[in-house]
Recover the amino acids of this structure.
């Protein structure tokens, strides 16, 4: 079958979908991944076909306004004062999601569309093409449950009614933000208007949209009251290409002393990359450990490092993390999964979105100390968390155990089998598997 994967965001929003695509390719399917053009090499080096998005997401998030939004997102949403800025910032991107995404989907002639929630055009493209669609998401945030509220909403002691209400709010907010673009696109392409009250997990004809969650029940919660179309398959890990080789300076640093601590905040530092890099170096020195510090896409920035700290750009986590003593990061789903798969204690310093959720999951399961929100991050707090992570024997035992279990999981294969079943059972199926 031909599979069109549509995703949008940072590397953490792309890499798991490339892993899923690689699993589909191994099962004999043709896979097109549509996302920001900066990820073209990541897609093609794993044997998949790249369909470029126009790069507006990167341009917006790298702008001064975009960095301000990332830096202050929590306060902006709580006060709602930043909502107009967020809406204005995203307008061009919303139009591109529909226009560029549709051109790529149409050209790929897919039998199914697998889409990230940010790539909200996915189910509408599938409806126009008369093929099934499946949402793929790396955390539990859209399928309603009474067990906990939507990720990012406060946990309040108001029970199941409150928890379920947060999902209704999210779906309405999503429709408020994207509705005019979806409505215009559907009208232009001869589709009926969306039904009043139609949620994000329903087709216009009322059929539910399957939701595959690419995370492990060993790390995140799986609600007992999820709707039937929702399931957690296990994490979608992307191993580095077989011929990948690290640069010699990194190998030499790793061999020159005890395993260092990895620290990286991806692209999530707003306008304070240099300030945070200085804080990280000071915390590593105070904790008395060596460190590997990842600059990522501007996540941490410095011109000089002491001999005890080695600065890297990008290195596959699945290669590096087994060679470190602990991992410190912002709490993205992919980095969290990679650190635990390697069996390494984890310190999460979240900025926004799902990052506090993963920080809480890691701490509650004993895989690391309590998360330190970036607004409260200091040299002293970070140094103390690093010392606890590398010296607590109970944490080490639990993370090594979960690492063995995660390495035995078959999340990608589980998801591939589910997608094959969705296509096979689709009433308007046009392909044979």
């Amino acid at each position: 079958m031909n599979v069109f994967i549509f995703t949008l965001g940072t590397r953490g929003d792309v890499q798991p979908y490339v892993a899923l695509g690689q699993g589909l390719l191994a099962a004999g399917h043709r896979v097109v991944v549509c996302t920001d053009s900066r990820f073209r090499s990541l897609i093609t080096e794993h044997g998949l076909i790249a369909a470029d998005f126009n790069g507006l997401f990167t341009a917006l998030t790298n702008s001064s306004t975009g960095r301000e939004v990332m830096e202050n997102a929590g306060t902006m949403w709580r006060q709602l004062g930043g909502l107009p800025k967020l809406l204005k910032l995203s307008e061009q991107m919303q139009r591109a999601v529909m226009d560029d995404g549709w051109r790529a989907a149409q050209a790929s002639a897919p039998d199914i569309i697998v889409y990230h929630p940010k790539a909200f055009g996915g189910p509408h493209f599938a409806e126009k093409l008369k093929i099934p669609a499946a949402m793929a998401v790396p955390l539990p945030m859209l399928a309603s449950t009474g067990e906990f509220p939507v990720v990012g909403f406060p946990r309040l002691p108001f029970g199941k009614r409150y928890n379920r209400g947060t999902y209704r709010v999210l779906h309405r907010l999503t429709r408020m933000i994207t509705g005019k673009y979806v409505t215009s696109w559907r009208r232009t392409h001869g589709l009926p208007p969306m039904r009043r009250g139609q949620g994000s997990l329903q087709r216009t004809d009322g059929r539910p949209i399957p939701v595959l969650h690419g995370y492990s029940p060993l790390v995140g919660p799986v609600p007992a009251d999820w709707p039937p179309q929702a399931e957690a398959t296990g994490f979608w890990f992307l191993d580095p290409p077989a011929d990948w080789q690290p640069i010699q300076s990194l190998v030499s640093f790793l061999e020159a002393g005890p395993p260092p601590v990895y620290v990286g905040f991806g692209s999530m530092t707003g306008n304070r990359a240099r300030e945070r890099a200085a804080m990280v170096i000071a915390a590593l020195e105070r904790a008395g450990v060596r460190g590997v510090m990842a600059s990522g896409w501007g996540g941490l920035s410095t011109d000089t490092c002491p001999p005890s700290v080695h600065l890297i750009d990008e290195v596959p986590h699945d290669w590096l993390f087994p060679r470190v003593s602990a991992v410190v990061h912002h709490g993205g789903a992919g980095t969290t999964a990679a650190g635990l798969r390697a069996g390494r204690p984890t310190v999460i310093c979240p900025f926004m979105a799902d990052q506090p959720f993963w920080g809480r999951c890691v701490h509650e399961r004993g895989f690391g100390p309590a998360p330190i929100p970036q607004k409260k991050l200091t040299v002293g707090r970070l140094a103390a968390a690093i010392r606890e992570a590398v010296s607590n024997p109970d944490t080490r035992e639990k993370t090594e155990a979960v690492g063995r279990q995660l390495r035995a999981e078959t999340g990608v294969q589980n998801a591939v089998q589910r997608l094959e079943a969705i296509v096979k059972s689709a009433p308007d199926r046009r392909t044979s598997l």
Observations:
- Residues 2-235+409-425 form a domain with the Rossmann fold fold (CATH 3.40.50.2000).
